[in-house]
């Protein structure tokens, strides 16, 4: 298969789909709308998972695991949540197959094996978790309860795209219970900030922190905090959400606790999550027409060493040097791969590692051994330099930090130059069609106006920024009074 990608300028969507497949990140499976995450893609997800898991535990959370199946009656207990996910649910109705007498060798559902109660394949786990919490929480001494789950969920999406929207995807979901409203609100804000810190420091993606409008909130939440990122094509992507659930689930599942005065009260709740959708954000923020560009903090291999040789003797000498470099780099906690495959030429290796976004590439040939040098290439700028062998570790360390910062700053500059303030609806529509990006505009606060703008432009309110200035104005669409600007964009 050719490694050359469709250019982003020619067809951004096709470029993305080709890159995911050709870089060996994921592929479509035999199950409609579901993907196979391949080893290289999963290695990136594992690095994300490891960093997030560390951050969760540092903030006092523990991991647990809850069932994949949710009894329908539990799923229906919190009405808004059930209604919000009803159209995306997969449902198990039977528990056995049998041979089909009319079609030899085929199976059919056994009509005698109908479940007494249908089971929902979890689209989210609030229902099963809050039913469980009822038995875990009796007293204020049991609070706060800070639980996270790494799991898969199923949402029966009709239009799917690898990583960005699939019928089954991987994620983490935190579910916490608290004594007071104030504690729960602080938890929701804290975890949104954890997400922002991770996405900016590890993924090198700048985000806007904000809250969702009422119509965009998580089903069953009183408030949804979010982080919004901007992709290279000017579309927004919701990178993470953290929900203040109030007492909605506690009341639905009768989760009460005895407070310090001995009186019974409902607990206050949060839930929060990010998913493999972050892989899509990573790809679309940094990558180019040559393939992936990975921030060093998340690259499975931060450095790759490619030998260039004609004889086995050359390879043996290069291998000795490469092993020493590898050992020295690993001692500095830098991940390195020595690509000594004999089945591929150096040019093919260069192309593969460029396609897969390895931040630094070291090439060593016989002349380099003679001169005590190596060639060092950066993936982000595609620049090359010849350096002394003795400087490899120090230079690699410095460049990896530089690449991480450079990728963030480049994305930040793009994001900042694609936040455009407008005051008229004509300006609003023009920016969406020509410049794209976030449109900062006054909104009158009504669902009707929000829905009408979405209908006319396909742009949604991505968030009400937490740092929004309370500036009086008039709504960009209705002309009614507005208390501040919000961010609109077309989005994934």
Strand order of the largest sheet: 3-9-10-16-13-12-11-24-27-23-22
Largest sheet: 11 strands, mixed
Distance between the termini: 29 Å
Rounded average pLDDT: 97
Give me the number of helical elements: 14
Report the sheet-strand fraction: 25-35%
Low-confidence stretches: none
Shape: globular
How does the helix and strand content classify structurally?
A: alpha+beta
Strands, total number: 27
Rg, Å, rounded: 26 Å
Helix proportion = 25-40%
Walkthrough of the structure:
- It is a single chain.
- The protein is an alpha+beta fold and 492 residues long.
- Helix content is 35%, strand content 27%.
- It contains 14 helices and 27 strands.
- The strands form seven sheets. It has an eleven-stranded mixed sheet with strand order 3-9-10-16-13-12-11-24-27-23-22. A five-stranded mixed sheet has the order 18-17-19-20-21, with helices on both faces. Strands 4-8-5 form a three-stranded antiparallel sheet.
- A hairpin with a 5-residue loop joins strand 14 and strand 15.
- The radius of gyration is 26 Å and the shape is globular.
- The model has no long low-confidence stretch (mean pLDDT 97).
């Amino acid at each position: 298969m050719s490694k050359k990608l469709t250019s982003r300028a020619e067809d951004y969507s096709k470029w993305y789909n080709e890159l995911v497949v050709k870089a060996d990140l994921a592929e479509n499976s035999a199950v409609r709308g579901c993907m196979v995450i391949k080893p290289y893609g999963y290695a990136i997800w594992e690095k994300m998972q490891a960093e997030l898991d560390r951050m969760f535990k540092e903030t006092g959370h523990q991991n647990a695991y809850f069932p994949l199946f949710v009894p329908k009656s539990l799923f229906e207990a919190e009405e808004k949540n059930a209604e919000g996910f009803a159209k995306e649910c997969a449902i198990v109705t039977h528990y056995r197959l049998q041979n089909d007498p009319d079609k030899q060798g085929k199976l059919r559902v056994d009509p005698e094996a109908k479940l007494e109660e249908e089971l929902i394949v979890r689209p989210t786990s609030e229902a099963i978790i809050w039913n469980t919490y009822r038995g875990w929480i009796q007293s204020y001494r049991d609070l706060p309860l800070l639980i996270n789950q790494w799991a898969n969920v199923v949402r029966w999406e009709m239009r799917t795209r690898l990583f960005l929207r699939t019928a089954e995807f991987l994620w983490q979901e935190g579910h916490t219970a608290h004594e007071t409203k104030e504690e729960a609100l602080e938890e929701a804000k804290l975890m949104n900030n954890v997400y922002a810190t991770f996405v900016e420091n590890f993924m090198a993606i700048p985000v806007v922190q904000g809250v969702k409008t009422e119509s965009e909130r998580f089903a069953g939440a009183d408030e949804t905090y979010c982080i919004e990122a901007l992709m290279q094509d000017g579309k927004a992507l919701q990178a993470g959400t953290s929900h203040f659930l109030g007492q909605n689930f506690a009341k639905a599942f009768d989760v009460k606790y005895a407070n310090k005065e001995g009186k019974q009260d409902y607990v206050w709740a949060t839930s929060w999550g990010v998913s493999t959708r972050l892989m899509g954000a990573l790809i679309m923020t940094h990558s180019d027409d040559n393939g992936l560009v990975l921030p060093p903090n998340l690259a499975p291999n931060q450095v790759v060493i490619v030998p260039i040789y004609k004889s086995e003797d050359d390879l043996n000498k290069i291998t000795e040097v490469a092993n020493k470099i590898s050992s020295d780099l690993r001692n500095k906690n830098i991940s390195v791969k020595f690509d000594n495959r004999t089945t591929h030429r150096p040019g093919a290796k260069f192309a593969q590692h460029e396609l897969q976004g390895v931040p630094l590439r070291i090439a060593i040939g016989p002349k380099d051994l003679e001169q005590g040098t190596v060639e060092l290439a950066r993936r982000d700028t595609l620049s090359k330099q010849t350096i002394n062998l003795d400087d490899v570790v120090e230079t690699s360390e410095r460049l990896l930090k530089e690449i991480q910062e450079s990728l963030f700053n480049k994305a930040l500059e793009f994001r900042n130059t694609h936040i455009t303030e407008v005051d008229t609806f004509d300006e609003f529509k023009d920016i969406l069609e020509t410049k794209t990006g976030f449109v900062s505009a006054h909104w009158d606060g009504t669902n009707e106006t929000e829905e009408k703008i979405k209908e006319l432009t396909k742009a949604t309110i991505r968030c009400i920024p937490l740092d929004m200035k309370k500036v009086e104005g008039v709504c960009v669409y209705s002309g009614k009074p507005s208390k501040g600007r919000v961010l609109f964009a077309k989005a994934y």
